[in-house]
Amino acid sequence: MIYEKEKRYIIPFADVPDERAEMPEISVDERRENFTEVETGFPEEMAIKEAKRCLACRRCLGCALCWAECEPEAINFEIPDEELDLEFDEVVITRGQDNAFHPFNSDLGYGNYPDVITDLQFERMLSPTGPTKGMVLSPRDGELPARLAIVQGHPEDEEDHLFSSVVLGVNESIIALNGTKDLEVTLVSPLCQSFQEKLLPAAEKITGLGILAGSPDSIERKQDEEALTLNYSENGEQKQASFDLIVILTKPKISSELVSLSKKLEQDII
Amino acid sequence: MENKHVLIVGGGPEGVRTALEKAEQGMQVTILEKFPTLGAERIPTDRLIKPDEAFVNPDLDKVRSHENIRILTFSDLKNVTRENESVRAKILKKSLLVDNSKCTDCKACIKVCPVNMLDDFDEGMGFRTAVDYCNPQTGEYNIYKEDMPVCQDACPVNLDIRAYVGLIADGRHLDSLAKIRERLPLAGSVGRICPHPCETACNRQYLDEPISICFLKRYAADVELQQEIEPVYATPEQKFSEKIAIIGAGPAGLTCAHDLARLGYEHVKIFEALPVPGGYFWVGIPEYRLPKKLLQREVDLICNMGVEIQYNARVGQDITFDELKNDYDAVFIGAGCHTGLKLRIPGEDDYEGIVDCVTFLRQQALGGLPEAKGKLIVIGGGNAAIDSARVGWRMGFDEVYILYRRTKKEMPANSWEIDAAEHEGVTMQYLAAPLEILGENGKVTGMKCIKMELGEPDASGRRRPVPMEGSEYVIDAQTIVPAISQSADLSFLPKEHGLELSRWQTFEIDEETGMTNVPGVFAGGDVVTGPGIAIDAIAGGKQAAAGIHEYLRNK
């Protein structure tokens, strides 16, 4: 095995330049009636900058630094994969740890604003084993948010999705409110009938939580503003409100692999 | 019931709960999870909670220590088949690369790991290192290592892209070039013309745009040129005396020759029908994309290893295929696809001024094309069509048209090539097809065309163009270049060659070794795949070189 510090091809994340380098070319006028090479090649500075855009895909590079540091010699790059051939009397198919979700309205700014996150990410944030050890912090600036919105990513969806996602939203609010000082939470989602009948009265009693039966249209950060602006509609009326952190309720997506397994074995996914 | 074996697919909270339930009933339970750790706590979605019972925490400790439960994390279900009453499952349990029974949880590995990646366990909310334990309470240490990154996997020759790009980032340009040359002798040429499947795969595209991998390869090669360094492609001390004949000095043949010379073969000879090397690199790709001088230099580097190229040696004419088979220990066929297909419309063979794209580009590259006057019409939508049009524009045709029967969206040519052609002033006529070539006094004067519209998708997934009745029209032209596709010219083979061919007149080869059904005869590149991209042909040459080595050493 090689122990070589030079093989560290990774670069600091903050330094990653964003724009792809464009190949310099000679002008169209210079190309007529000759066969001069059109693309002139990257100058050094441009090449280095472009190379630094590579994320190196942030997987183990086999540099073996960890192996060299591991005193009990637990790290071992030679441990092989195992191929197993097993027989079972019964198979139960469950969703496992794959938390993929269906894409939702791209106007909600997820991916553009670091302070717009999914319910799954928020769940990890609220967990004592999560990245903030259960504290609610905005990923944008690491500050405690004062105004949190939880909004429905799939407002048009059927009853059971709305029920379970709204319940998750309320439950996440309960945990967040319990652990965060001076927090106000607003939940924006169409409410299905079963939720209104069974749980709405109890949810409305939660201090600090406001429930709006509406649907979110878009999220933007206006110029020179710290907070995000949520545009939503409630009873056919267009409204706006500002928030420090917005959580989007997602709809779970089952992988095609599991779907085909379920078809093959003619068994439902539980 | 007692000894029933149950497989639980998915180690999330639901899977863990079911596993415990079944194990308590005395069943033998196996949990299979793709992730390196079993599911952590989740927030209920069926009832409102009290703050103090926030997360439903599956009893992971109990699961881990239960005598009836076997845990297979980091595992893939490769195949399942139902056999009578039971289910047979083939499972790949990937190595954690850490022996957790020895691990003391000192975290020294995490402190030194240079790789910071988004934490998949925390839904990308933070960073983790490549060596990690996922769930801080119950997780096992594991190393997130793939066989190769997506770019390298997408590259037909599996170039170590992450390494050579990283070396450029570190300013180590010549080391980067050396890294590329470990697998690719024609770095500067390929770095100019490759349609880069690696960039199509690049993960960075999900963030903004892929890394400009191909041009970085070109950059590394250009640095050496600028610094006027004359590199030597090394050959090993241990030599092999077998003689190998290679048909065609194109990308496949040159790479095959290079790889064989690097393995120690001293007698590698390439038979090339043309007076120049490079195959399609020389006579197909125009000078403005790939300068001949640069190509010649890269060919010279291969020749300096001891590889001989005999020019103007057309197999089947100047030397027979059987002679090669008898006089050499192995033969590699890398003859390419150098025959342009015909339009099969009336008038095609009647007039002067109609020339297929392969011939057109070759004549231009070798000199000897008739005058470029009037209007040029190129028919087709592939890269050869674009090259022909851009060449024609440079030669001085007054007007250059590309006629294509579908729309820009369906054009198989690389989008940046189409854009460049339009930018230079080539006029695109989409949704049009030729019906008849028109001429006078033995010379082309124009073409009768028909307008098309797009119908239902065909086998290729593209919408099939359908002629619009009554929409015929005539355009005048002095030169017409059909660029619809190319095929292999196999006339160099004797009648009784015994080689297996596909219905497309390409060679059938062994997928592992590149050998044809005739022992000692190998093939690769376009003569196997049909007209394709250079890097695939190069991969074919590499495969055959390895196959020839194996064949000769075990003979």
Concise account of the structure shown:
With 270 residues, chain A is an alpha/beta fold. Chain A has helices at 44-52, 65-69, 119-126, 159-179, 193-198, 200-204, 256-264; strands at residues 82-88, 90-93, 116-118, 147-152, 184-188, 209-212, 214-220, 228-234, 237-243, 245-249.
Give your account of this protein's structure.
- The complex is a heterodimer of chains A (about 270) and B (about 550).
- By secondary structure, chain A is of the alpha/beta class.
- Helices cover about 25% and strands about 20% of the residues of chain A.
- Chain A has a 5-stranded parallel sheet with strand order 3-10-4-5-6. A 3-stranded antiparallel sheet of chain A has the order 7-8-9, with no helix packed on it.
- In chain A, a hairpin with a 2-residue loop joins strand 8 and strand 9.
- In chain A, helix 3 packs parallel to helix 4.
- In chain B, helix 6 packs across helix 9 and helix 14 crosses helix 15.
- Chain B has 18 helices and 24 strands.
- In chain B, the strands form 8 sheets. Chain B has a 5-stranded parallel sheet, with helices on both faces.
- Chain B is of the alpha/beta class and about 550 residues long.
- Chains A and B meet through helix 1, helix 2, strand 1, strand 2 and helix 3 of A and strand 1, helix 1, strand 4, strand 5 and helix 3 of B.
